[in-house]
Amino acid sequence: MILVAGGGLAGAAAACDLAQQGRPVTLFERERVARHKICGEFISIEARRHLASLGLDLDALGAVAIERVRVARGSSLIEAALPFTGSSLTRRRLDAALLSHAAASGAGIRTGCLVRRTVTESGATGLELDGGEGVRGEGVLLATGKHDLRGMRRSPPGRSSRSQLCFKSYFALLQASRTALEGHVELMLFRDGYAGLQMVEGGIANLCLVTTSDRFAHAGGDWRGLLQSLTAESAHLRHRLQGATDRLDRPLSIARVPYGFLHRGGEEAPCDLYRLGDQMAVIPSFTGDGMSIALHTAKQAARAVLTGEAAAAYHERMHRALRPQMRIASGLSALGRSTGGQVALLLGARLWPGLIQRLAIATRVPDLPVLP
């Protein structure tokens, strides 16, 4: 029995894949039902292919097509076609559908089940659940997302990440704004951060943003105050949100996300514990490739288990494969949060019309062949 800790995108995809290959697998998820999560919800072409290979039909779930990108700073605006057609779908709907599909494929799904820590006995790794229940298996896939298990903490975030705050909410836009936003993902740059806006299913828009704790404090430590501060600076965001209705009572928020984290592993780590999703790599949100990494590492971790590849070898292989994209994405994120970098990005995009497409391609996760 393979054990999967975490029922988000990475964990559910890995459990689904293993079950479809005939391996007994049980997934443990802390939440009883899928919930909204801090995520821009942009699904790249690679992520869409991974989901299709598992048998999940995004169009049937109501996914919205994304074909173009707009970048705005102040009153400046540039637009370009994406080098592929992406999709947009809420994580709540996607995660629920993938967990259901994994169960239908034969995976055991235990929801409302909190994993406290990993336990290694006689060379085998198992899980300790809330309440003290122990579960033993033939390998553990660690897919707990942004939640670290006791004793399995990732490297702490760097100085810049420690000061960052992430917020997300959904808005019902006026019809004119909805029509203008259809088929686009919009990236709005402002002092000390950036925001992404795109339509999701149900005719609502996802606003996901990264700012600093200082800016949030200067805005009164309040979501409404922060929005007022951002719309005062960004004419484009102000125009989009004019007359809009916030669909959440309070925004989702998170701090100290270890952007740029890339696990390498070591000889001291258990040979049968495989990290995937945010436990393997946390790519800066600026490039919108987090879900692709989650699905890519899920596929590779499942194949590593199936072929008997040791966890250390898998981690080293993933580290080599993801490092170039992580470096580019981290550099772009740093540019996107600085005044000089923002000006340079917009100027470069105006001088070289193909720059945005090239950057989008450069930060995509490589579609590595799985092990035989």
Automatic annotation (TrEMBL):
SUPFAM superfamilies for the chain: FAD/NAD(P)-binding domain
User: Which InterPro entries is this protein grouped with?
Assistant: FAD/NAD-bd_sf, Geranylgeranyl_reductase
Which PANTHER family does the UniProt entry name for this protein?
CONDITIONED MEDIUM FACTOR RECEPTOR 1, GERANYLGERANYL DIPHOSPHATE REDUCTASE
UniProt protein name? FAD-dependent oxidoreductase
What broad taxonomic lineage does this protein's source fall under?
Bacteria, Pseudomonadati, Pseudomonadota, Alphaproteobacteria, Acetobacterales
